[in-house]
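Troubleshooting log. The previous structure file for this entry was overwritten by mistake, so regenerating from the original sequence record. Sequence copied from the archived sheet and checked twice against the printout by T.R.
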Amino acid sequence: MTGPTPDGSDDAVTTHDAITADDAITADDAITADDALATDDAAATAPAPGQSGLASQVEALLFLSSDPVAVDRIAAACDVEPDELAPALDELRAAYAPGRRGLLLREVAGGLALATAPETEPAARRLLTAPRTPPLTPAQAETLAIVAYLQPVSRPEITRIRGVAADSACATLVERGMIEEAGRSQFGAVLYRTTSLFLKLFGLDALADLPDPAAWDPSPEETEGLRERLMRAGDARGGGDATTGDDPDARPPSDLDALTRVDRSGAPDDGDG
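Regenerated output below.
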């Protein structure tokens, strides 16, 4: 070990070494801190583990939208071609598979949407205490079903099928956005059709997803009542008298399935009313 000299040079060297060591430690700390900040920034912008950046963008868009979004609109927002979305959509379908999360990826009203899983409904009901839209009355439900299966259909025809006036039910369904005007019949009556909101509320992607009427198994009493109502509506469409008509007992047996058959394009098989 070198001893001190009268002029203090050894002390100076020792002091200089100490300063250099401290500076090196400080520099190392600074580098480590910068690296940590850079790592944090990278983690904040990186996609979720196992999820691509495109899938994350699509997820964000669906989260922001309150309505279903068509695939072509998602592609335009992400600045990619629609067919390039397929891998990202497959990722999201796997991530939101039933039972994995509290959300589901649904295909409704011709687009994609994030929806709550059915098992979360009780908790959601307790959280969302705002007044809810009242459920459909039986009259409104009947009217909506007729419009859904026979659209476009006029209010007088709905009245003939139901056997009671449909003015109030139609007005309420229009007000709630479930049906809308779709032109006029050859007799000048307003025609109605369902809206995209109807598809969204009932979880349907298209009208072709409506339940098949052939799967309905009515009782004999229901069959007879429905046959009579449909026959009266058929008389009116054919120009007959819907209130007097011919003798129901003299009519030949009718094919109920044929009477209820619906063209999936949205129009009834037996013409305009």
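The longest helix spans residues 9-45. Archived copy saved in two places this time.
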